[in-house]
Amino acid sequence: MTGPGNQFHSLAKIVGETNTSAEPQALAAFAIDGHLPSVVVRPSNAEEIAEILRFCGAEKLAAIPAGGATKLRMGAAPVRYDVALVTTRLERITAYDPGDLTVSVEAGARLGEITHLLSEHRQLLPLAVPFLGQATVGGTVASGIDSPLRQLYGTVRDFLLGIEFVTGDGIHAKSGARVVKNVAGYDLHKLFIGSLGTLVVITRLNFKTFPVPEASGAFLATFASESGVLELLRKIRKSPLRGSALEVFSPTLSALFARRMAQTAPDRTLPSPWLSGSAWALAAHFGGNDRVMHRYKSELESMAGAAGANGSTLLPEDARAALWDHTREMVPLLLDESPAAMIVRVSALPNRLGDVFAAAQQSGDRHELPVAILARAAGVAYIAFLPNQSNGEIGGRLAQAARELADAAAEAQGFSFVAWCPPELKGRLSLWGKERTDLPLMRNVKQAFDPGNTLSPGRFMGGI
Questions:
Q1: Among 29, 242, 275, 460, which is least packed, fewest CB within 10 Å?
Q2: Which helix (H) or strand (E) holds 373?
């Protein structure tokens, strides 16, 4: 093995000295739970990435792919970390056919820039994810984070057509295609969604895009208890209405949104009593022509009344936009509210969300932890525990709350994942809840794509 200095120069020969850094500030930007790389490299194409990974394999170095560094706090701490492989120079939109509703982008392209380009043609990519301004499309897919738009468009699995990638041993390959009508081969690329960079380095992605509705609106209803909001959720899910997003906010989250909207967008603040700390709320976003919009307003008002809503309203455009921005950016808002926050994503059957809510509130009460909840109609809930300080005793309470939520998720025929938490907490719990029966299969997949364990070792469940 070569020494650190020779490793730096060897990597610099691949990407150039200006794209290689061992400066403390550059290393700190890609720290993961207190672990620093020895060097940051910024390749410009798949060939350079393949050469970097072949070098890392030969030298027994661990490389962790990164983009905008917005999701590096997700997942377990790495067991080894030598090279931060930053993809932001792979930033081109390589093909876009508005008529065919397809777009191909390199992994380091910023989601905000893609969104802007598509909007010029009244199209969208349903990836309304947190940290939108900084997030890269490759990192978003690798993190597996979902979007409020999954209610109508599904998750990224449903509109990702293909991926080009480099395996851990430096082989450049691809799966899927650039077109919607593709029947050749296997959907191997779907294995990489949510894999946290442990299998491959994504270099290019092909997506199906969607037309922007003629008009958009948002309906908000408030309830004295979760039973009422869940009843309205059930009624909407059983109805023919197909909104673009359907979200439930607990009183704590509603109060946070209201307070932050008043601070950052006072001209777009919702009028009282909407989004108060004393009521549960349901927000339904929808789109269509004038006739469709009128139908949504009429039927949602009727269903809200039948479910016992305290009140309901069709939001004006400025308030709708503010609420959407805060819903999308819920994660950074919660992390800013409580630097010691633990945010658990629970997936369960939609009709078992009430059980998840109850378990979360009971854990919060039992361990004296404020709880904020956002739930999506598809059966995904984000449970945030928000302590006002961080110490070992509070860490113990957070760990126990995470275990209790994992039990509740399993009872609701679902799964839990501690998506964000203080670094010191990660060694005290299983981030992915109950051990899964398919873990041996996951290890076989890891061996197939990264036989040298070069990529993000230890970042995924089971130490993968």
A1: 242
A2: strand 371-376
In the structure encoding, which two tokens stand for residue 228, read together?
Answer: 């009422």
pTM above 0.85? Answer: yes
* Residue 435, domain member (yes or no): no
* 397's tokens: 């309470």
Residues 335 and 386 in one domain: yes
Please state, in angstroms and as integers, the Cα–Cα distance from residue 113 to each residue in 46, 88, 93, 106, 214, following that order.
21, 13, 9, 12, 22
State whether 123 and 18 are in the same domain.
yes
Residue 191 has pLDDT above 80, yes or no: yes
Strand partners, 371: 385
How far does Cα 290 stand from its chain's mean position?
Answer: 32
Which residue among 157, 183, 212 closes a domain? Answer: 212
- Residue range 336-358: mean pLDDT, rounded: 94
Among 277, 274, 279, CA closest to 316: 274
Locus of tokens 């490389």: 63
DSSP-derived 3-state class of residue 84: strand
8 Å CB contact between 90 and 106: yes
Average pLDDT on 275-282 reads 90
On whether residue 459 sits in a domain, the answer given is no
Place of tokens 């819920």: 330
Q: Name the residue range of residue 405's domain.
A: 331-428
- CATH number, domain with residue 371: 3.30.70.1130
Query: In this structure, are 27 and 67 located in the same domain?
Result: yes
Helix 46-59 with 4-15: angle, nearest 10 deg: 160
Total structural domains in the chain? 3
3: left (phi over 0), alpha (psi -120 to 50) or beta: beta
Tokens 């590096």 appear where? 72
Name residue 220's beta-bridge partners.
283, 313
Quickly list H helices, 307-352: 317-328, 330-337
Whether 272 and 408 share a structural domain: no
Q: First and final CA of the chain: distance in angstroms?
A: 24
d(CA 346, CA 356): 8
- One domain for residues 149 and 116: yes
Ramachandran sector of residue 64 (left: φ over 0; alpha: ψ -120 to 50; beta: rest): beta
Task: Note the pLDDT of residue 177.
Answer: 67
Regarding whether 240 and 205 lie in a shared domain, the answer is no
On whether the CB atoms of residues 311 and 281 are closer than 8 A, the answer is no
Q: What is the pLDDT of residue 293?
A: 86
For position 226, which CATH number holds? 3.30.70.3450
- Any idea what the CATH number is for the domain that residue 45 is in? 3.30.465.10
Give the single-character DSSP code of 461: G
